[in-house]
Amino acid sequence: xxxxxxxxxxxxxxxxxxxVIDTSKMNEGQRAALEMTEAARDGASEKGTFVGGLxxxxxxxxxxxxxxxxxxxxxxxxxxxxQRLEKFLREKVDPDAIDRTGEIPDDVLAELGRMGAFGIKVxxxxxxxxxxxTNYSRAAMLLGSYDANLTALISAHQSIGVPxxxxxxxxxxxxxxxxxxVAKGEISAFALTEQGVGSDPATMTTRAEPTAxxxxxxxxxxxxxxxxxxxxxxxxxxxxxxxxxxNGKEKKQVTAFIVDMDTPGVEVTHRCHFMGLxxxxxxxxxxxxxxxxRENIVWGEGKGLRVALSTLNTGRLTxxxxxxxxxxxxxxxxxxxxxxxxxxGANIGKHAAIADKxxxxxxxxxxxxxxxxxxxxxxxxxxxxxxxxxxxxxKMWGTEAAWRIVDDTMQIRGGRGYETxxxxxxxxxxxxxVERFMRDCRINTIFEGSxxxxxxxxxxxMLDPHLKVSGAALDSRKPMGERAKAGLKAGxxxxxxxxxxWLPFGSSIPSGVPGKLRGHLSYAARTSRRLARRLxxxxxxxxxxLEREQVLLGxxxxxxxxLFAMIATCxxxxxxxxxxxxSDGADVLSxxxxxxxxxxxxxxxxxxxxxxxxxxxxxxxAQTVLKTDVPGLGDGFIRx
Length: 640
Ligand SMILES: Cc1cc2nc3c(=O)[nH]c(=O)nc-3n(C[C@H](O)[C@H](O)[C@H](O)COP(=O)(O)OP(=O)(O)OC[C@H]3O[C@@H](n4cnc5c(N)ncnc54)[C@H](O)[C@@H]3O)c2cc1C
Prior knowledge:
Blueprint: H1 17-20, H2 28-40, H3 50-55, H4 72-92, H5 95-101, H6 106-115, H7 133-144, H8 148-160, H9 163-169, H10 172-183, E1 188-191, E2 207-210, E3 216-227, E4 234-246, E5 249-260, E6 266-271, E7 282-293, H11 304-315, H12 318-340, E8 342-343, E9 346-347, H13 352-381, H14 388-413, H15 415-418, H16 421-426, H17 434-441, H18 451-474, H19 480-500, H20 515-542, H21 550-579, H22 586-611, H23 615-627
Parallel strand pairs: 1-4
Antiparallel strand pairs: 2-3, 3-7, 4-5, 6-7, 8-9
Helix pairs in contact: 2-11, 4-6, 4-7, 7-12, 7-13, 8-11, 9-11, 12-13, 12-14, 13-14, 13-21, 13-22, 14-17, 14-18, 14-21, 18-19, 18-21, 20-21, 20-22, 21-22
Bound molecules: flavin-adenine dinucleotide.
């Protein structure tokens, strides 16, 4: 039951939080949240990651150049499925009707099940299509360009529902029992969130108590916002199991259970409705004395949070893929409209204010897809690859860029962007559903790890090498002797490492990269060292307090994300130019060049913000606003 599953590298457990992070100044709630997520955190991989390297001043371009190409076989397999999926979507799925009625027709779900859309990554031996992560991402892109409700259903089912945790952690018996069911179309879901549990699992109240003979667990509690919960046949539920005593201290345990929805005591008490994703089968699921066999535990007792976090590490790659699809669709809408709409004597695309938006949309869409495909290829190359940081960045950067893109699309479509597709149709205009796209898109920066949590998550990993080296020296709870010894060790490390961050040369630019992009890559390598240096300065200045400087840390994270986006963009553009044959690739080079130049300006502003900002004043002001009625803000409106 608890044997290490083959698909997932069981990395060395991360150090006990208490050994690297000084939690002494935290309140009880902060400490509990931190200790629980730290305990569920995978240890760093031996090789280090590409993005992790950027924060340490290492820009290993060889790891991402040349841009990984799909093999012909893999591409053919993907193409065959994508063609079927596209034909079906075009002919049988009406996204506006789904949005209007809030229902996905049963025959649509049945046909998706028959074509294998519910088991894209499930191995063929368990009844799935056995396609690669890249092909799965391509499918998510296609779906994301067409219907967000179907995308969310398929993603919640496959990326976080039963298939993904079982592919990663399931025993052979579990795989044989559940994967054929879910691959053929039985809908699944993932239930972590509760009334008091959003971004903080330490406050979980759903409990699973073992029966006297230890063969079963009885689950009681209520889960909120469970996507697919209303239609699901089987779901993964996170529940607290009895605590363990570790080093004399009680440690909360979270365990993942597979639960059949027809088990007595499982009840969907409410279907939730949202601003967008109107046909999401999302509900409140209540568990009253639900008895589940021990065999249904995923991976092992107390490993539930690691299951959830590891599942999401790859699972959250679906969102940037879907966002890339939606962004391409937006670009198509904007291209058509900007070429045909004439105002003030010219096509609106000729007005600089609109052209500026179009250029940014195109560049960001290209970057988003480049990051997504690059990370997907890392998974395909090595199923055990540590892609936590890359996937989190793709999610954070991609969902935020997609929101800007939808917003710009609405602005460019003007009043028609704000009008519903049905209303446009009723008065004889083309029913272009920008309004629906916008409603559907907004949630992406909130679920599967909100943008704020992604920044914290990336910041934690970004600081990890430093915490390992110098955490003990800065830890006020440790005896002076121990701190001094740790300080000496840290000093030795930094004496070797720090001067290197000042070196003007470093990573060599891979051969064959077009001249226009080489300068950007040199900049990325140089800036990675500058980033590492500035991060070190911030650590030296702030000590353990840096952990509380979320906005400052966020800037470091954003610089890293912009660098990653630049590098992924250059790598893919170089590969497209090389493949271009007849064409000289001028257009794609201009696109990549524009993206990199814009990213460099953003990076400059972020660096400036490291030393010139209003962070402290803003924090203080926010606390005042939260506590008092500041004169001028507290009147003149209808109070609730
Ligand atoms: C449509 C929809 C579908 C969903 N599907 C599922 C599902 O299938 N399964 C499931 O388990 N859950 C699901 N969720 C829940 C979703 O994952 C949560 O909404 C999300 O985790 C955020 O939790 P919350 O809404 O409670 O926000 P909170 O955690 O209360 O956060 C509120 C705000 O504070 C920020 N914040 C929180 N903590 C910190 C911090 N330490 N530092 C800085 N900022 C912070 C957040 O980023 C957010 O902006 C779904 C939600 C929605 C709306």
